[in-house]
Amino acid sequence: MQDLRRNYQFGSLVREQLPAEPMALFRLWWAEVEKAELPEWYEINAMTLSTVLPLDSNSEEFGTGASSRIVLLKGLDEGFCFFTNYDSDKGQQLSQHRRAAIHFFWPFFERQVRVEGIVSKTSAEQSDRYFASRPRSSQLGATCSPQSRVIPDDHDLVDKASALDKQFGEGAIPRPDYWGGYRLTPLRVEFWQGRPSRLHDRFRYRRASLESSDWVLERLAP
Ligand SMILES: Cc1cc2nc3c(=O)[nH]c(=O)nc-3n(C[C@H](O)[C@H](O)[C@H](O)COP(=O)(O)O)c2cc1C
């Protein structure tokens, strides 16, 4: 791995060309990623979600107190929306500590985006709408999996899902109340564009509170 090395030269970031607020720049980058001809297996909306627990609430149940996993971006409004099990480890961490970070890496464009912000649940209507739009098999999977809990080796999730399928018959699968959406509303967003000789372009937007529309834009050393 010591010899693995790429020289980045796809693009650059110039302050004068950057919009006044970060969601506008994120939407521009997202539109470019969506348009790019990428392999089908490449999940462009995959993002790493990192959650933390304040030190005083650390318990063995949550390991060291910081953890990361991939979730899929499913909506963009004033923040970044994703869906999951509210009782999962991430759900329990977020219920105790609402600050979290998400991270995108789009190697095709030699770009990363880092977002730090405050997480809240999406409305029940928004969660219902998204749940109803999912394939029935995903609805069944989400309903029968006690996400993040330890389960016995012989616990058959496929059996559970098909039993549940039969139970509902022709009827729609209702969204369980332990499953739904979260929105991470940003306080800081950093856009990173790879540059030759490791002299990358980094620009960070930050604001003091969720209510503020006064974004400060700063260039950061690579
Ligand atoms: C490509 C990919 C997409 C994923 N998307 C989601 C998702 O949208 N929601 C979700 O709950 N888990 C998703 N997962 C699974 C999570 O990474 C993780 O295993 C799960 O949410 C449990 O995390 P937790 O125990 O920290 O709560 C995805 C995993 C991968 C690799």
Sum this structure up briefly.
The protein is α+β, with helices and mostly antiparallel strands and 222 residues long. It is built from five helices and nine strands; from the N terminus they run αββββαββαααβββ. Strands 1, 2, 3, 4, 5, 6, 7, 8 and 9 form a nine-stranded antiparallel β-sheet that branches.
Task: Jot down its keywords.
alpha+beta, 222 residues, nine-stranded antiparallel beta sheet, 30% strand, Pnp Oxidase, Chain A, binds flavin mononucleotide
Your description of this structure?
This protein is of the alpha+beta class and 222 residues long. It has five helices and nine strands, in the order αββββαββαααβββ. Strands 1, 2, 3, 4, 5, 6, 7, 8 and 9 form a nine-stranded antiparallel sheet that branches. 22% of the residues are buried. The mean pLDDT is 95. Bound molecules: flavin mononucleotide. Flavin mononucleotide binds next to β2, β4 and α2.
Give the topology.
Elements lengths: L21 H14 L10 E7 L13 E7 L2 E2 L3 E6 L3 H8 L2 E8 L4 E11 L2 H10 L2 H9 L12 H12 L10 E15 L7 E6 L9 E5 L2
Antiparallel strand pairs: 1-2, 1-5, 3-4, 4-7, 5-6, 6-7, 7-8, 8-9
Percent of residues in helical segments?
10-25%
Low-pLDDT runs of 5+ residues are: none
Strand count, sense and barrel status of the largest sheet are: 9 strands, antiparallel
Secondary-structure element sequence? Answer: HEEEEHEEHHHEEE
Query: Which outline best applies?
Result: globular
The CATH class designation is Mainly Beta
Q: What is the CATH homology-level superfamily?
A: Electron Transport, Fmn-binding Protein, Chain A
Taking Cα atoms only, what radius of gyration do you get, to the nearest Å? 20 Å
Structural class, from secondary structure content?
alpha+beta
State the helix count. 5
Bound molecules: flavin mononucleotide
- Give a count of the beta strands, DSSP E runs of length 2 or more: 9
Give the termini distance in whole angstroms: 22 Å
- CATH domain fold name: Pnp Oxidase, Chain A
Mean pLDDT: 95
Any idea how many domains? 1
**Strand proportion:** 25-35%
